[in-house]
Each structure stands twice: as C-alpha cells, then as structure tokens.
Design goal:
By secondary structure, the protein is of the alpha+beta class. It has a domain of 141 residues: Peroxisomal Thiolase, Chain A, domain 1, CATH 3.40.47.10. The longest helix is centred in the middle third of the chain and has 20 residues. The protein is globular.
Length: 397
C-alpha cells in the first residue's frame, strides 16, 4: 500500500482577528498565497508537480468567497494548470483537507498534495455568511423543537456536565499562554513560521513573525476578573444547571492566520530527495450530539484507537483544539490523559483559532513536538460546529 507522508508544515504567526490586528490589513487570498509560495520555495519544488491544493475555510463569503483555494493558488504564482478546492468542515476544515489529501495519495489518485487553511476573522467575521438567514430549515427545527444553541452555550453545558469550576477553566487557559510563551522563547515555532509583510495604519511596513494572541503575563487571577461571555436570560431559564463560567479568557480568540502542509507518497518524496518527517497512520471523522456540539473529540478518539490498533498509552503527544477550555478538559478526563502531553506548546486559547486554518496549524505543532521529544505517535482531534470531530494519528519517521 502507498504510504502518505508529511514533508513540511508551515504557518503564519497569528494576528488578532479584529480591526487593528497585525494581519487585518492583509487580504486572505494574499495571506494564503504567501504561505503556498513559501512552501514550494522552502522545498525547492516546481508548482507543476502539485496534483491538487485543498484549503479549509469556514466563512466562504466576501473576500473568502468564490473558491479562496483557487484564488490563493493563482496569487502564489502557481502554474495555471494546478487545481484547488475549498473545504468546510467548520473548525476542522484544514484537518479534513489533510485527511482528504493523504487519503488521495494512499488511494493512488495523487502523488503530491498541499493541504492547508486560511481564515481572516477580522475581514470576514465569523457568522457573516448567515446574517439574516435561517441556515437550519424547517426539518431541523422540527427535529430539535427546543432549539440548538451557539458554541458558547455548548461550552457551558460541557463545563456543567463534567463539573469544571471557573477556576479550573482559567487555570488551564493561563497554562496555555504560559506554554505558548515558553515555546516562543525557546524558538520552537521559528522554523515553521512564514514571515508576512504587513503595513500599519500609519503606513509603516514590517514583518509579522510572532503570534499576536499569546499573552505571556496571563495568570489565573487576571482571567478570574473577566465576565461571562455568553450569559443569556432565556438560556439561563432553559439550562438552570449552568454556572456561566465561559469567558473571553478561557475561550479561543478571534484570529487571522493561514497554514499548510506538504503531503506526498513516501516513494515520491525519496525520488525528489526530500525527507519524510512523519507518515499518516490512521484517520476518522464522527458526528455527535449537536446540542453539546463540542464533545466530538471523545467519540472520535475512541473510534480512531479502534481503527488504528493502538492503545491510548501508545500516544506520545496529543493536540486537542482549545476552542474553549472545557473541551480539552472533558476529553482529558474521559481518557485520563497525561496533562504534560496535552497541548504541551500551548493551544488555541493562546495561539489563536483562525477556524479554517487551525487543523493544519495543529498538525504542524504536533509534528514538531514529536520531533523535539523523540515521540513516535501523535494524536490530533478537534471539535467542529454542528457536532462533529476529526481525529488523526501520525507516526514520526
């Protein structure tokens, strides 16, 4: 069977996803195009070798509409013969892109694929694709007559069900910032970050190379001063068990970013004189309760362990996306996970969650962590809007 391998993984540094953020002046097509061009340049490849480009993006309207993947390929200067498509599996969009790319190689449909993702949340705010529209339809309303809820309420439901206190959520979040800051100080991210030329409101140009969302001085005490972000009287009446402990500080911030991984068959990598860094071992994707919505990583992990033949103790690192602190905490409690192996370089609460880009950002972090520690197997999983989750296991080479 053909083996799919990762040859390289790169990303931009994060920018705050609001006006004035470091990347808010950069068009998402230019952001993704810069990453794609850098990926080829770093690996000495001609674009004509690429069979397909698969890009995740959630808010596919405005500047991110009309197949942002194809537009980014053209912006990167790739040959016009190179196709591209845009994928939406909500927060797991670029992880799904990596799954599809690697699966295509294993199936023999591709030799070389780029999978990645982009999201400019400052320029295309989350939810702007459905403003003024009912995106559920009558049949879903009939199936769930009490109504579904937004992700913030889902995060509150998880915190209540698993019994997490506000202090536990804030402690986990402060640790995410501390770990990300330490990783940056140690130079852990330097080899994977692509510099982006940005212009300030005053017209000054500079290179953006440092994650803008990381707050090195964050403490549990400081986070404890923030007010709940999703309190709603109607929801409080419907769910009296909620403690209203989810705040902006224990949630992932709005973020601008792009990321990409270079995937190819192991045979092709060796033919080109490139070094495979890890192989794709196992994949899965699941649906889950759309009310709790964010618990999907739990059944996804159970399923991928069954499919892979590995045990949880075989895993040397796990990246569980920190959409909200309650999500990885519930996952860790379910599997009695080693906290030192969970998001050891910080997670989305610190590094940001540019939703379409986060999957391949996590994949790059997981790969680098296995290389830094000599670990063999790494698990990546992330919750997704509507109650879904992808899970992926890679094996370091």
């Amino acid at each position: 069977m053909t083996t799919a391998v990762i040859v390289d993984a790169i990303r931009t540094a994060s920018g705050r996803g609001k006006p004035g953020g470091a990347l808010s002046g950069t068009h998402p097509v230019d952001l993704m195009g810069t990453v794609l061009a850098s990926l080829l340049e770093r690996n000495g490849l001609e674009s004509t070798l690429i069979d397909d480009v698969l890009i995740g993006c959630v808010t596919q309207v405005g500047e991110q509409s009309t197949n942002v993947a194809r537009n980014s390929v053209l912006a990167a200067g790739f040959d016009e013969s190179i196709p591209a498509t845009t994928i939406d599996r909500q927060c797991g969009s670029s992880q799904q892109a990596a799954h599809f790319g690697a699966q295509g190689i294993i199936a023999g449909a591709y030799d070389i694929v780029i999978a990645g993702g982009v999201e400019s949340m400052s320029r295309q705010p989350l939810g702007s694709a459905s403003i003024g529209k009912d995106y559920l339809g009558t049949r879903i309303h009939a199936r769930y007559p009490d109504g579904l809820v937004n992700q913030g309420i889902s995060a509150e439901l998880i915190a209540a069900k698993w019994g997490f206190t506000r202090e536990q959520l804030d402690e986990f979040s402060a640790l995410s910032h501390q770990r990300a800051a330490a990783a940056a100080t140690d130079g852990f991210f330097e080899s994977s970050i692509v510099p982006i030329n940005v212009r300030s409101a005053e017209g000054t140009e500079s290179l953006h190379t440092v994650d803008e969302t990381v707050r090195a001085g964050t403490t549990t005490a400081k986070l404890g001063t923030l007010l709940p972000a999703f309190y709603d009287e109607a929801m409080a009446a419907r769910f009296p068990q909620l403690n209203w402990s989810v705040t902006p500080g224990n949630s992932s911030p709005l973020t601008d970013a792009a990321s990409a991984v270079l995937i190819m068959s192991e045979e092709k990598a060796l033919q080109l004189g490139l070094t495979p860094r890890a192989r794709f071992h196992s994949f899965t994707v699941v649906g889950d309760d759309p009310l709790y919505m964010l618990t999907g990583p739990i059944p996804a992990t159970h399923k991928i362990l069954q499919r892979s033949g590995l045990s949880f103790s075989d895993l040397d690192a796990y990246e569980v996306n920190e959409a909200f602190a309650s999500v990885p905490l519930a996952w860790a409690q379910e599997f009695d996970a080693d906290p030192e192996k969970l998001n050891p370089r910080g997670g989305a609460i610190a590094l940001g969650h540019a939703v379409g880009s986060s999957g391949t950002r996590l994949l790059g972090t997981l790969l680098a962590q296995l290389e830094a520690t000599g670990g063999r197997y790494g698990l990546q999983t992330m919750c997704e809007g509507g109650g879904m989750a992808n899970a992926l296991i890679i094996e370091r080479l």
